[in-house]
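Help needed: design a sequence for this.
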């Protein structure tokens, strides 16, 4: 007499193996079919996908902008809606080693595991930390760059993340900082 539980376990194992095998065979076929239709989602060389928020500063809606005067009080969080997407952004001023203030914005999602980030710094944006796994991101505030990081890049200074924080391209018009494109 064969144990019924053992028979059911073997059936499940065989069925799962067949399903995984079929999926592995079908994946390249499906990717080749939809790949041609998804060109707009091709990642940049950094692995990020560029999302256009505004074509230029003149076409950007006022509600997406953050006044420079408001940023002088400290970083500002703003949820940017693009079509059906919502991008959590933090706008702030970075005080550079040359003494000047530069407006900047970053996607406030950890590049390690996608957790929301906490802002570091007071009046000036200095970095972010991740409450989930302890990654720390620091802004390169040296116009000449920081040990491999570009000026205003929010590079990994600690923790398990290996990629810099995603940036948002900004432009200033009439004392207001507008987001033009985000890299997600």
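Sure. Designed sequence:
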């Amino acid at each position: 007499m064969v144990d019924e539980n053992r028979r059911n376990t073997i059936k499940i194992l065989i069925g799962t193996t067949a399903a995984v095998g079929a999926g592995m065979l079908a994946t390249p076929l499906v990717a080749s079919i939809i790949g041609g239709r998804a060109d707009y989602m091709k990642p940049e060389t950094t692995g990020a996908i560029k999302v256009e928020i505004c074509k230029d500063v003149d076409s950007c809606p006022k509600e997406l902008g953050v006044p420079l005067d408001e940023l002088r009080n400290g970083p500002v969080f703003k949820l940017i809606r693009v079509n059906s997407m919502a991008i959590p952004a933090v706008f702030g001023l970075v005080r550079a080693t040359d003494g000047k203030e530069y407006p900047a914005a970053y996607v406030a999602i950890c590049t390690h595991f996608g957790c929301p980030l906490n802002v570091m710094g007071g009046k000036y944006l200095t970095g972010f930390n991740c409450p989930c796994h302890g990654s720390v991101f620091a802004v390169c505030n040296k116009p000449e760059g920081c040990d491999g990081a570009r000026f205003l890049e929010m590079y990994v200074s600690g923790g398990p993340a290996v990629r810099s924080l995603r940036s948002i391209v900004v432009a200033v018009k009439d004392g207001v900082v507008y987001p033009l494109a985000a890299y997600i």
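The CA atoms of residues 73 and 81 lie 24 Å apart.
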